[in-house]
Design a protein that fits this description.
By secondary structure, this protein is mainly α. It is about 50% helix and about 0% strand.
Length: about 90
């Protein structure tokens, strides 16, 4: 997956520091740790992200759980780095 993401980002002209993460703990337990941050609105959602919201509502009984798993991974990385900033759409070229 790391190599595929690196190739796709390079095609888009983006050269990102991509690190592969090997998860060792149970996915359900990891995703459930999102609950306090979601409840306290530390994590905010955009209504346009329908697939992610659907997967969160259906978790862990839904057919797909890649969105909640990726969200948990992103939150974990953000908490570890403790240094990040929120980009607006103009900075991203959107």
């Amino acid at each position: 997956m790391k190599e595929e993401l690196a190739k796709a980002s390079a095609r888009a002209g983006l050269y990102l520091p991509i690190e592969e993460v090997q998860q060792t703990s149970d996915k359900v337990m990891r995703v459930q740790t999102l609950q306090p941050d979601i409840k306290n609105k530390y994590i905010k959602f955009n209504a346009r992200h329908k697939r992610l919201l659907e997967q969160l509502y259906q978790f862990p009984m839904g057919a797909h759980d890649d969105g909640p798993d990726a969200l948990e991974g992103a939150r974990t990385i953000a908490k570890k780095t403790k240094r990040f900033r929120i980009l607006d759409r103009a900075e991203l070229g959107l």
